[in-house]
Amino acid sequence: MSDLKLLKLRTLIPAHVSFKRTVVARILRGLRIAARLHLSISEDTERTMHDLWDSIEGLDKGRLMMEMNYMLSYGAAVPSICLLERFNLLNILLPFQAAYINQQRSAKNSMMLMVSLVLGSVSNIAAGVVL
């Protein structure tokens, strides 16, 4: 009950034991629930997810598609994608979307750098500073 009040996702038994039984499905299900209900993830659970994320490639393709469909449904696509990225799963599960997001992030960072340089130059000119 305290986990519900704290909005925290936690495993009932130690996370390493829980996830080793049905590793991938539990990780994806946990991320789906956390994304949909805006839950934080306990440190133990998060550490275990990071340790075991690479086993995702062993999941049956049909089960993987089902879990991904559930994750990206019901208005939870954005938080699900954020969590997938946080746990290094986005590049594995949605590589094209991950590449696009990284490209957009790089373009935005480049644009922000250019804007800050231009604004810095403008403020220097306004202040009478010659470079």
TrEMBL record:
A Pfam family recorded for this sequence: PolyA_pol_RNAbd
tRNA nucleotidyltransferase/poly(A) polymerase RNA and SrmB- binding domain sequence ranges: 39-99
Name of the featured protein: tRNA nucleotidyltransferase/poly(A) polymerase RNA and SrmB- binding domain-containing protein
Organism: Hibiscus syriacus
